[in-house]
Write a structure and sequence with these properties.
Blueprint: H1 12-45, H2 49-101, H3 115-164, H4 170-198, E1 207-210, H5 211-221, H6 223-228, E2 232-237, E3 243-246, H7 248-265, E4 269-277, E5 280-287, H8 315-325, E6 329-334, E7 340-345
Parallel strand pairs: 2-4
Antiparallel strand pairs: 1-3, 4-5, 5-7, 6-7
Length: about 350
């Protein structure tokens, strides 16, 4: 619903000033005119100046009383319509804002003559769109999360029942339960990170982070897993190291996720590069695996999207969110020689 359509925006303050100045100007103008006319007329009609002045004053006083009353009424009427022109749009915006608080994330098509109100309405519409996207994302997130959580829980329940009723080998069933429990624990950790990253009210503490050291620490943590697959690491870092101002915990998490992804698919070698180009930081993880399927590549950073051999479908989406939080971006592509390349630009 439109209020008043106009391509020209005016200021509320300007409208009020113009209205009141116009009323005052008319008041003084009419008063001065009446005084002038009355005095001149009495001077022409009387014989002496003091007689004319006395008569003019008496007659002017009789005229001024109704004049003041008329001007007061005119001022009240102008003020009333001016107040309505301001308060009605504000009340409409207040109703709109109240609806947002109740979860109504539909934009409006209000249009105002006043630039301030029009800007406020545009800001509210922008907030509504952002909240609508956030709300829809959260709903989808919880639906997918509940599905992912249900799968390992059902497996644990089935194997636990097999042990209880003696229809499964206890050792093998126990090993499966442990694997599913580890998977469940990893999934819960990822979900907590997503909740932390997506929380629009979260305040992050930034600090100077040595990226080279962060990467080496992450490699150390996952060294045992890499050794089980006989994987070797090749580092290509700037000699002076790279210090980046960011959230240390989130950056370490992004490196961990990219590293674990590379370990999962690599055959013999993982190359990690961290360099600075033109004031920007570039981190690359390259493996020598089979690469990324063409149909998977466009969706690889989507939440809960799992390619061949994928785990939970959350890890890479977390990396993307962390890169976005730091004003950067991440890309994925296949190496000409075989394998995948994940590049984070900060």
């Amino acid at each position: 619903m439109n209020l008043r359509k106009s391509n020209k925006k005016t200021k509320v303050r300007s409208r009020m000033l113009i209205a009141f100045i116009a009323v005052l100007f008319l008041s003084y103008f009419l008063t001065a005119s009446i005084f002038n006319v009355a005095i001149r007329r009495n001077i022409r009609d009387g014989g002496y100046y003091y007689v004319a002045e006395q008569v003019a004053a008496e007659r002017s006083g009789m005229i001024l009383i109704p004049l003041v009353a008329i001007m007061f009424a005119a001022s009240a009427i102008v003020s009333y319509f001016l107040a309505n022109s301001i308060t009605k749009p504000i009340e409409r915006l207040g109703t709109f804002a109240s609806g947002i608080g109740k979860g109504n994330f539909l934009t409006n098509d209000f249009e105002f003559r006043d630039a301030e109100l029009d800007a406020l309405n545009a800001a509210l519409n922008k907030s509504v769109r952002q909240l609508g996207v956030y709300d829809e994302t959260q709903k989808t997130f919880f639906q997918n999360a509940s599905h992912e959580l249900r799968t390992p829980l059902m497996s644990i329940k089935v194997y636990a029942e097999g042990i209880v009723y003696g229809i499964m080998d206890a050792k093998k069933a126990g090993e499966t339960i442990l694997e599913e429990a580890d998977r469940l624990s990893e999934l819960v950790t990822d979900l907590l990170y997503i909740a932390k990253i997506d929380n629009i009210t979260t305040a992050y503490k930034t600090e100077a982070v040595d990226l080279s050291e962060t990467i080496r620490n992450c490699v150390t943590r996952q060294q045992n897993l890499a050794e089980k697959k006989d994987l070797s690491f090749v580092f290509d870092f700037d000699e002076d190291g790279i210090t980046y101002t960011g959230v240390a915990d989130l950056l370490a998490r992004a490196v961990d996720n990219l590293l674990s992804n590379a370990i999962r698919y690599a055959k013999s070698e993982i190359i990690i590069s961290c360099r600075k180009y033109n004031g920007k930081v570039e981190i690359k993880f390259m493996d020598d695996g089979n690469g990324i399927e063409p149909d998977v590549l466009p969706h690889i950073f989507e939440r809960f999207y799992k390619g061949k051999g994928g785990n939970t479908g959350i890890g890479l989406s977390i990396v993307k969110s962390i890169a976005d939080q730091h004003g950067g971006h991440i890309t994925a592509e296949n190496r000409p020689s075989g394998g995948a390349i994940f590049t984070v630009n900060l």
